[in-house]
Amino acid sequence: MSKFIAAIDQGTTSTRCMIFDHSGAVISLDQKEHHQIFPQPGWVEHDPTEIWHNTQTVVRNALSKASLSSKHIAAVGITNQRETTVIWDKITGKPLANAIVWQDTRTDEICNQLAAEGGQDRFRIKTGLPLATYFSGPKIKWMIDHYESVNKAVMNKTALFGNMDAWLIWNLTGGVNGGLHYTDVTNASRTLLMNINTLDWDQEILKTIGIPEHILPKIMPSSGILGYSKTELNGIPIAGDLGDQQAALFGQTCFSPGEAKNTYGTGCFMLLNTGFSPTHSKNGLLTTVGYQIGTEPAVYCLEGSIAITGALVQWVRDNLKLIEKSSDIEVLARSVPDSGGIYIVPAFSGLFAPYWRSDARGVIVGLTRFINRGHLARAVLEATAYQSKEVLDAMENDSRVRLKALKVDGGMTVNELLMQFQADILSVPVICPKVSETTSLGAAYAAGLAVGYWNDLDELRENWQLAKRWDPHMDESTRSTLFLGWKKAVSRSFNWID
Fold first, then answer.
1. Closest by alpha carbon to 17, among 25, 29, 3?
2. What burial class does residue 39 get, using C-beta atoms within 10 Å of its C-beta: 0-12 exposed, 13-18 middle, 19+ buried?
3. Per-residue model confidence as pLDDT tens digits over 150-162
């Protein structure tokens, strides 16, 4: 009987289950969106119960579509939107509040208070991260301070915290009936609470922020058997767990120092493998754990995180109603030869790498009466490419490695206009694998390695196949002029929030 690997990919806008064969090909896929909740400006929430129900549905449907049952699955891997914070009660199994999503900015005051006492980088040596609303730790503190239900459960020691991976693992392994409270090193490294050198929760930081350790999950490797499912995949080992961007790095087989990938999704995330020791950035990047296989040493990365890329296309679709579906953005953008001199800086939740400016807000600059819908659409796509160039420039300055090509993945890679402009503005080739949804593939690889479905990293490298390559064609003078305009536009977004 043929065996397969399942991956649960719990993302910012949807949850999917993908089933892969030994060659890394997709056998089956099911996906379901969940609601985006915006209680007030700057706040973004998800309903964890809805996401758990969706997870069960997509697993069931993915199996059904391929006429498979749990006996055909060798292992399951999990990957997830990082930093999104859930606190639930281990007695009732119910969330104590909606999850606070990674894009949410409500913890700005907490971060500012912590920074006032020691600067924005007071925890960077230990965590690799600046103080920012992005990370889970300040979100936990905010929930304890503002939700009586959370505060009471913490005091009674019934509260459990997790990013989405821990919430799913706990439910998959039994929930109130013995569910395992685990996370992995990649997710833990995004909380602002884990020491990236020891791979343990940092007692000093926990005390400073005011978070009790008893609510935190146990930190485990990214590839290794965590436990066994008791739901749709009954008896199947849960053997892989990575945050979504690290999973994409793994799926792109960036296993050697100097290899990098860029994932184009709701946000955009570029990761560079730096090997077995953390490299601290001087240019606004994050130092994070890339992955850990079993008892092997952890592999580290530099990361450039961009909050709004694909979400900008959604905004144009849902808020401005300029297009009916996301794929229409390319058709509209191709109706003009260029952006007409305008730039859109999508600082909806402030700016992430390399600026880390929570006071920034979105701007459209360079408007004249000449501008039409097509120019706006083109500027939307170009904003993603410009932001990625800023991150790549910072990455090259920190690592002193000049990238020869950029591996890309994620939903926006189907946009030919964007990918060509990305190659042009970077002045390096952009290459995309046949399986563009490498986040799910990376979770599957981690799980399959743990149970011997794949033998080693070399076997995974052999699976990578080129689907598309975009070579740069723009001259240096044009590139320089366009990018200078972008930098000027970014500066106009600063200091909007007092």
1. 29
2. exposed
3. 999 999 999 999 9
Q: Which amino acid is at 476?
A: E
* Res 1 pLDDT > 70: no
Q: Are strands 299-306 and 268-275 parallel, antiparallel or unpaired?
A: antiparallel
Cα 32 from Cα 424, distance rounded (Å): 35
Cβ distance 70 to 236 under 8 Å? yes
H or E, element range at 17: strand 14-20
- If DSSP codes are grouped into helix, strand and coil, which group holds residue 225? strand
Beta-bridge partners for 449: none
The DSSP 8-state label assigned to residue 236 in this structure reads -
CA-CA distance, 296 to 289, in Å (whole number)? 13
Residues with Cβ within 8 Å of 184's Cβ and at least 6 positions away in sequence, in order, are: 165, 219, 220, 221, 222, 241, 242, 243, 292
- What digits encode the pLDDT tens for the residues 211-234? 999 999 999 999 999 999 998 888
What is the four-CA torsion angle of 160, 161, 163, 164, rounded to 10 degrees?
30
User: Which among 247, 136, 272, 348 is positioned nearest to 123, based on CA atoms?
Assistant: 136
Q: What share of the chain is helix, strand, coil (3-state, %, to 5)?
A: 35, 25, 40
The model's pTM is 0.84
For residue 382, give the nearest of 415, 358, 356 by alpha carbon. 415
For residue 266, give both structure tokens: 């709701």
The Cα diameter of the chain in Å comes to 65
Answer whether 219's CB lies under 8 Å from 183's CB: yes
Give the phi and the psi of residue 66 in degrees, each rounded to 5. Answer: -100, 5
Q: Are strands 430-433 and 406-409 parallel, antiparallel or unpaired?
A: parallel
For strand 237-243 and strand 363-365, is the pairing parallel, antiparallel, or unpaired?
A: unpaired
pLDDT tens digits for range 439-496: 999 999 999 999 999 999 999 998 888 889 999 999 999 999 999 999 999 999 998 8
Tell me whether the omega of the peptide bond preceding residue 221 falls within 30 degrees of 0, making it cis: no
